[in-house]
Design brief:
Order of helices and strands: EHEHEHEHHEHHHEHHEHEH
Number of strands: 8
Shape: globular
Bound molecules: 2-phosphoglycolic acid
Largest sheet: 8 strands, parallel
Number of helices: 12
């Protein structure tokens, strides 16, 4: 049984005051985590105030990124060891905006996946897909190669805890989500890739999320698909009301 995960990705949005207000407002209204897990990934400077505001509540506060070294002369980077020390469980790794604007390569992403596991946390590994690749029929190879490269050297025990998000970049922030069938097809492809790299048993434990213009109107249809175990929502996670609606997709 894979527990659904409804995750928000705030990107570079919100002040400490706004993040604390949001957290206090939603935490008591979130579903029981043994039925639906809920997380918000936020910029590093907001994490501790959000953890304090959540104080034992149901929201998982998550990071959007980290570096692959635990400490050292890496000005401006965020240590995975420090994130673990704050009590974090999830770190987004390899979001398409990190790949595109910050030149994160498959090798860097693989090192970050290792760093997250080495600090006893779990990566939410993102794979993207561009419209150009879809139109030229290269998208399947592209998704498979991103997953394969990111998981190089990752053990069976680590892999089974993994969360992977299928996020076609043509659907991100565009207001135009992939169709339910396209989203299911992408998530199925990712699960098959994990099965090929590891085993069917591990692939059945891995949670695969869809991301790209998820909103309260399409979440139910997405969550009804067999291979979609949750969503990673950007814009719709910024407002308390819409984030709560996503988490209550069963109602
Ligand atoms: P969006 O962003 O929901 O605003 O499309 C999703 C993401 O980038 O994770």
């Amino acid at each position: 049984m894979r527990i659904p995960l409804i995750a928000g990705n705030w990107k570079m949005n919100k002040t400490v005051t706004e993040a604390v207000t949001f957290t206090k407002q939603v935490t008591d209204q979130l579903p029981d985590p043994s039925e639906v897990e809920t997380a918000i990934a936020a910029p590093a400077i907001l994490l501790q105030p959000m953890i304090d505001a959540n104080s034992g509540g149901r929201l998982q506060v998550a990071a959007e990124n980290c570096y692959y070294e635990n400490e050292g002369a890496y000005t401006g980077e965020t240590s995975p060891m420090a994130l673990k020390d704050m009590g974090l469980h999830y770190v987004i790794i390899g979001h398409s905006e990190r790949r595109r604007y910050f030149n994160e390569t498959d090798d860097i992403i693989n090192r970050k996946v290792h760093a997250v596991y080495n600090n006893a946390m779990v990566p939410i590994l993102c794979c993207d897909e561009t419209m150009g690749r879809r139109e030229s029929g290269e998208h399947v190879h592209w998704v498979v190669s991103q997953v394969t490269a990111a998981l190089k050297g990752i053990s069976d025990d680590e892999a089974k805890k993994l969360v992977i998000a299928y996020e076609p970049s043509w659907a991100i922030g565009s207001g135009k989500s992939a169709s339910f069938d396209q989203a299911e097809e992408g998530c199925y492809l990712i699960r098959q890739t994990v099965a090929d790299l590891y085993s069917d048993e591990i692939a059945n434990q891995v949670r695969v999320l869809y991301g790209g213009s998820v909103n309260p109107d399409n979440v139910k249809g997405l969550m009804a698909k067999d291979n979609i175990d949750g969503v990673l929502a950007g814009g719709a996670s910024l407002k308390e009301e819409t984030f709560l609606q996503l988490t209550q997709y069963k109602n």
